Amino acid sequence: SQPRPVRVDPRVVATRVRRSPDGTIPEGLEDGDLVVNLHPVNLADGERLMFYAAQPTAMNLDLAEQFLRRAVKSRRQILGNLRARPDGSREPLNDRVMVDCIQGLQAGVVFAVLAIEAFANHMIALLPEGSTVTVAGENNPRSKSQMLKLELDLKLRHAVVLHEEVRSASGDRPWERYVKLRRLRNELIHLQAAPLPERADSPDAYGRLVLGEGDNAVETAVNLIEFMKPGFLSDDTFDQLAVDRPAQDPVQENPESQL
Questions:
Q1: 169 exposed, middle or buried (CB, 10 Å; 0-12, 13-18, 19+)?
Q2: Which residues contact 13 (CB under 8 A, 6 or more apart)?
Q3: 57 close to 48: Cβ distance less than 8 angstroms
Q4: pLDDT (tens digit, 9 = 90+) per residue, 10-22?
Q5: Are the beta carbons of 109 and 185 closer than 8 angstroms?
């Protein structure tokens, strides 16, 4: 670890130093210092590289935001400049730009769900040694290492909530939005063939990305994480994402909002 008295990239693992209740503080540090975790890697030439350790949840949220910001802007430009086809339908002016746009929209959705899973895995790792959970339909309790093998829904519903300060989101609005986002991600990674023209009224996952489903994937991930563990994401992370911190009770959100 390394003390840093300055603001650091929110994608980096850092802890703010605070005085203990009896007024003591670790030697060499001052109240308010940031202690940044360092990641060691031995290089092929024998040298050791030390770099700031990444915070996976913030890293994935930032990637999702970058991809979606560019792709949503591109989609608006594409849909605003379509040309007619001989059969009366319309098409983009540049097919490659259209594919790049869909690729960016997909990446944003995938990274947003990865951020949620990173949060779940982080919270499982923080459980006390010896923690166990029994999932419905299973006879034997799962250890911490076995919890990490659970599907994401089960991690969130059974393992993460073992922390006293974590509240269950199951059944609340943030959970409903998360489930829609996760299902979209699952459909994207299982697509096998291009849609047929007659499916235009019920598009596949790529078609729904073009229609705007998934545009708010970052907000969906943030709302779920902050609902379950308020304060998990730092103010710097919200600044980086250009997303507002959710209200204390995200249940009151507009029920008509998208993912």
A1: buried
A2: 36, 37, 52, 53, 54, 55
A3: no
A4: 888 877 777 888 8
A5: yes
